[in-house]
Amino acid sequence: MIEVLTPGWLSIIVDGGRYGYGDIGVPPSSALDKLAYNALNHLTESDMDAPVIEVMGNDFSLKIHVDVVCAITGARVIAYIDDIPLLPWSAFMAKKGSILRVKEVEEGLRYYVGFSGFMDIDRVINSFSTNLECRFGGYKGRPLMKGDRIGLKEVRLVNEKSIPEKYIPPMGSSHMLRIIEGAEIEYFTPKSLKRLAEKKEITCYTVSAKSNRTGIRLEGEPLLFRRRVEKNIISEGILPGTIQVPGNGMPIIMLYERTIGGYARVAIIAKADLDHLAHLKPKDKVMFEMIGVEEAEKLWNTKLESMSFLHKDD
Fold first, then answer.
1. How many CB atoms are located within 10 Å of the residue 165 CB?
2. Which residue among 12, 30, 80, 215 is least enclosed by CB atoms within 10 Å?
3. Which stretches of the chain drop beneath a pLDDT of 50?
4. Domains of the chain by start residue, with CATH
5. Contact 117, 152 (CB under 8 A)
6. Whole-structure pTM over 0.85, yes or no?
């Protein structure tokens, strides 16, 4: 069993996502950093759809009531098991009664905590992920709170190992995100599109404090609509990474908590850069670079090749 001592800013149970139900309005609600999630399950030798804890914020701590191997991936953190410092993206042994504490986040925003045992929670609509808006899944459909206790079953003592440093991506600001054209890109003036993503005139946006798991709101130079263009569209399906633009011209990057949207879609984040969205925090700087579909596919294939270590035995 694990016991929450301090929950950080926002700690929820997530997995690979609740996919296949978008037609009835159920979003994925998945781990936002899929590389970190998969690396965590690799380190703990868990099923690739195992539930883990996604955390934002300093001063997260757990008491661990069983001998188990743990790991932390995602944002770079200063963390300890009892008084022993932990290496980033590494598995470590926690003895019964140990305290796992994340003191501070050094780079990035969200980090992931997992165990070589299966958290004893119910699967809802084929997933363990927490849907905060509808309050189902995860642990009682809500963020973790001080005093929460979650059982661990099928605990195995696996080998301690680390993800090589070269595979740990940078997560600091400023963030350069590659994008491809969206369905309503022609709704915007050429001058605005040039400022958005052309190398010589790229606009730098700032992440708003109003951002959350639903979307990352950006502040800065608004995108201008062409004359006589409707600023809203009939609601249509959206994918994670879709950049919607409401009437005020300020971009919103959609994450994994919506299946439809009614704002013009100026662009979509290249799949290879989606994990990076987990680490955009308030006041971070964001810039965009427009690329073609072929280049986006090459970037994704390159990322898949770089992730092949997750499927190899150490």
1. 9
2. 80
3. 314
4. 2-167 (no CATH), 175-310 (2.40.100.10)
5. yes
6. yes
